[in-house]
């Protein structure tokens, strides 16, 4: 019963968790690994997760923590770069360009700011939920989000794409 309930929950949340990990700075393959590791952690503590007041918030926090753990381990063996490799883009679509501009812009802000943007605008968490997921005060959430949005609004790559207009 426990495994079936978890399997149903995980299957329903899988695409969203992977996409959140991508938006938090992972490449698609790493995002799947991070989401899978987060779900494994949740399975181990499923009784705690399933009784949480905000189950999705709990899982999102596990995802953010798993990503941080992964980056801490990786940071010793990989060096960051300020350039992305050139990618071949299919003809006739601006969606790839939009996603690329967004990924580049998100990579230019701090990890904490990126977490705030993804939690708020992709996972649609409110400030209270974000504060719980990030384990910070609500005021910290507001300032991170405000600084992130200011940085994204000033990013020329997004301005060229028209991505900063609401």
Descriptive overview:
The chain is mainly alpha-helical and 166 residues long. It has nine helices and no strands. Helix 1 (2-23) runs antiparallel to helix 2 (28-44), helix 2 crosses helix 4 (55-74) and helix 4 crosses helix 7 (127-134). The protein is globular. It starts with a helix and ends in a 5-residue tail after the last helix. 27% of the residues are buried. The mean pLDDT is 84.
How is this fold's topology laid out?
Blueprint: H1 2-23, H2 28-44, H3 46-50, H4 55-74, H5 95-108, H6 111-122, H7 127-134, H8 138-154, H9 156-161
Helix pairs in contact: 1-2, 2-4, 4-7, 6-8, 7-8
Characteristic key phrases:
166 residues; mainly alpha
> Would you tell me the structural class of the helices and strands?
mainly alpha
- Separate helix tally: 9
Largest sheet: none
Which oligomeric state applies?
single chain
> Span from first to last CA?
45 Å
Tell me the helix content.
over 70%
- The tally of strands reads 0
Beta-strand content: under 5%
Determine the mean pLDDT.
84
What shape does the CA trace take? globular
Rg from C-alpha positions? 17 Å
Helix-strand pattern: HHHHHHHHH
Low-confidence runs (pLDDT<50, min 5 residues)?
none
């Amino acid at each position: 019963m426990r495994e079936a309930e978890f399997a149903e929950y995980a299957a329903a949340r899988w695409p969203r968790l992977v996409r959140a990990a991508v938006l938090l700075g992972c490449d698609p393959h790493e995002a799947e690994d991070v989401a899978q590791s987060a779900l494994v952690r949740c399975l181990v503590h499923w009784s705690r997760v399933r009784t949480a007041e905000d189950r999705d918030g709990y899982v999102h926090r596990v995802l953010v923590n798993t990503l941080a753990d992964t980056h801490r381990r990786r940071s010793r063996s990989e060096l960051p770069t300020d350039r992305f490799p050139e990618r071949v883009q299919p003809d006739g679509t601006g969606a790839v360009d939009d996603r690329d501009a967004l990924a580049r812009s998100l990579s230019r802000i701090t990890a904490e700011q990126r977490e705030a943007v993804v939690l708020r605008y992709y996972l649609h968490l409110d400030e209270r939920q974000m504060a719980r997921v990030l384990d910070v005060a609500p005021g910290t959430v507001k300032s991170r989000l405000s600084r992130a949005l200011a940085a994204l609004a000033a990013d020329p790559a997004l301005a060229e794409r028209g991505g900063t207009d609401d």
